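Example 3.
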Amino acid sequence: MQRTLGLVGGVLVVLAAATLVVQILKRRSDAAIDPAIVETFRRRVRAWWILTAVLAAAWLIGITATVVLFGLMAFWALREFITLTPTRPGDHRTLFWVFFLFTPLQFVLVGLRLYGLYTILIPVYVFLLIPARIAMSGDPKRFLERTAKIQAGILICVYCLSYAPALMTLRIPRGVSDMPWRFLKIEAVAAVPANAAPANPVPANPAPAPAGGESPPEANPEERHPPAGLARSDLDPEAGPRLLFFFILMVQLSDALQYAWAQIPRKHVIVPTIHPTKTWEGLLGGTASVTLIGAALWWATPFEYWVAGLMSAVIALMGFAGSLTMSAIKRDRGVKDYGTLVEGHSGVLDRIDSICFAAPVFFHFTRYYLILKGVLEPIV
Amino acid sequence: MDVKITGAILALLARFFSGASIRWIDCQPDTCQRVYFANHTSHLDAVVLWSALPPEVRCLTRPVAAKDYWTAGRLRRYLATRVFNALLIDRTEIKVHQSPVDVMLREIGQTYSLIVFPEGGRTSGEEIGEFKSGLYYLCKKRPDLELIPVHIDNMNRILPRGEVLPVPLLTCITFGPPMWLEAGEPKADFLFRAREAVRRLKEL
């Protein structure tokens, strides 16, 4: 509880400070700073407030509310994506299934914690169904291109984004970062028969874990033990939500810090044809700062401080990749923001592009970590 | 009263599901008598355009719609006659002394505005079709009516011809600057000018 309050309280303090800075900058109309930058900053701060408030609200209500919230975000982002992507009348039925069946289904599976299903529903079943259904419509014109567009849309907006609420479903024991690394202990484990391990309070012959070790939460706790001898009371119920909050915080910080570092005078733009304000200074400076901040916040995560730093660096790099990719698509379609349909507002997709790319990678890296720590069964 | 509430809810739903962004370019919402004319690609066009108007304008605006489509089934009939207050035109029985233009003029009186789709039917959406002459005759008899060109973008992808289930993409509805029938303007010139006014809004 203290850790959660510390994290949320810290974020609120930072946000309040940012709002104060915005107000001061707005008062100084003579400012040496470009008013456009102040305006961008003001919009971002407002978006963070909204994001924090919504996340906090969803949290208080529970995991279902968070999953629904991200589901709605995905639905809206997909709308923006497909609106800007030319499709042909033959794709209509396919799009109907994508919007009204598979998008909700993906989030339902996440909410049910069916890891073995939600990780493959879209990349296997939906990706095969889309071209088949388009072929059924009998319009072969630019077939591969149309298929790829719809696949990219559902992959980025729905599949990738659904990994963010999936972070909440990870079962994380208390003090996992104090546990020994399993791969360093292989010899020791091998030397002792598995059931005789002294740290194992589970009665002999525990019920076999269901496929993937991810059974629905309502299963009888007597029959389902977290692996590696952890009793249910050892799980930290707030660790999942805190991990999601940490993740969103790191993505937003890396966006902001990359932008801030890109303001220094000597600029080396990375790809001017795609994104004129992303510079090497911004990428390296932003990633380095986020790594340090992430390491400093290790107490809010299940990780050791150095792992927390590395994870934050991965989040920063993936966030960069996400906004670069989405701006390449925007460039191709000749628009500045996905939200240009609503004047003066950038769209949902502009706000979540970094989250979409960072979420699946962070989720799986966290899983690898938990497996290496021996608290999560690897899937055989 | 219940009709008003249904109307408000329906407008809100239409706004949400079409995700419409509404732009008024060189034009402001007004309760004066107007004729909104738009391109037509989907059954939902009239509903979406109607819901894009502010409530006080909406209650004075009547979409012109085909009687055969909007009286088929109880729900459609209720929506058309009570909620949208639609002006239903019988496409199958057009009589000389009871032409649709006369019906429209009689029905709007000195208060109501109209929503018309001068292409006469739904088109595929890539090109705006030729305008039928009804708009011209309407203006010739009532040159004081303000003509507002409206462009509805993307509706052909949301509910194309021949489909029943919509796909929730985002639309954009653009209202353009008012125009009038000039004195002595030939029919063909006027219809061309009107069509261009709608087409131009697409590029803005």
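Chain A is about 65% helix and 0% strand. Chain A touches chain B at residues 75, 79-80, 82-83, 87, 89, 92-93, 95-96, 99, 341-343 (CB under 8 Å).
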